[in-house]
Design a protein that fits this description.
The complex is a heterodimer. Chain A contains four helices and two strands; from the N terminus they run αααββα. Chain A is mainly α. Chain A has one domain: Orthogonal Bundle (Arc Repressor Mutant, subunit A). In chain B, helix 5 runs antiparallel to helix 6, helix 5 runs parallel beside helix 7 and helix 6 runs antiparallel to helix 7. The chains are: A mainly alpha, B mainly alpha.
């Protein structure tokens, strides 16, 4: 979700579509809003002014920092794993 | 998902969660078209929320609070217009008193009266627009703002009525 919001503010359905395009999994509405509540509680995302009845969210500076750190760790992990596969 | 089902499944969530997310979540569910699968997902997430509630942080932040509603142009403009109308009457009365006259005794209504009428009339469609837009989405805060707007409107009308201006 943080990676999805990194490209700009989105409301719920836009996030679902974006996440489905990125990783091929479409989250359920309860799963999505569970994550929204927890990310907002952490201060990693924040709500913007509602558009009609849709509620857009944007990533915060703290959220970007966390996302960058997690993606760096994942990239390092993926690189190390692929290197080990090379001799096989 | 139809509105009734969306509201029913949203009610499974704890009160604190609903207080923050029910409005947007219900609308989100109304646009969800995965039927039973979506309902089961929501029920599972709501039960999980009851066991491990999301608390603290921005959870208590209410984006539809009275304060945030009051910042909307359609909320504060009518209030400003009422205050302006009241100020117009007060200034006109002071000026008339200084010149030894009576404000209500003029043949022509004068600029002050036209300004007062304009300010009192123009705000009515703005108030109606505010009510149409926000009353359903945030009833409690909207009622508060509408009450304030009505109070300010009556307060601006009162001196004109009581002093027969």
């Amino acid at each position: 979700m943080l990676a999805s919001l990194a490209s700009g503010p989105k409301h719920g359905h836009a996030m679902l579509d974006d996440i489905a395009a990125m990783c091929g999994t479409r989250l359920g509405p309860g799963t999505l809003y569970g994550a929204i509540a927890r990310l907002e509680q952490q201060g990693w995302i924040e709500p913007l002014a509602p558009e009609e009845r849709r509620q857009p969210y944007q990533i915060t500076a703290a959220g970007l920092q966390v996302l960058r750190a997690r993606l760096t760790t994942l990239a390092r992990f993926a690189k190390a794993g692929l290197r080990r596969l090379e001799p096989l | 998902m139809n509105r009734g089902t969306a509201r029913i499944v949203t009610r499974i969530y704890p009160r604190a969660w609903r207080g923050r997310y029910a409005e947007e979540f219900t609308y989100f569910l109304e646009e969800e078209h995965r039927g039973m699968r979506a309902i089961l997902n929501v029920v599972r997430a709501a039960m999980w929320e009851r066991i491990f509630p999301t608390v603290g942080g921005r959870m208590e932040q209410n984006i539809y609070s009275f304060g945030s509603m009051l910042k909307k142009p359609s909320a504060f403009l009518p209030l400003a217009m009422s205050v302006g109308a009241l100020a117009t009457v007060a200034i006109a009365a002071i000026v008339a008193a200084q010149h030894g006259g009576h404000l209500g005794g003029q043949k022509d209504e004068g600029t002050a009266a036209h300004m007062w009428q304009l300010l009192m009339t123009v705000q009515v469609p703005i108030v109606l627009w505010f009510a149409a837009n926000w009353l359903r989405r945030a009833p409690r805060a909207s009622f508060g703002v509408l009450a304030l707007q009505a109070g300010a409107w009556v307060a601006s009308l009162a001196p004109v009525y009581l002093l027969h201006l």
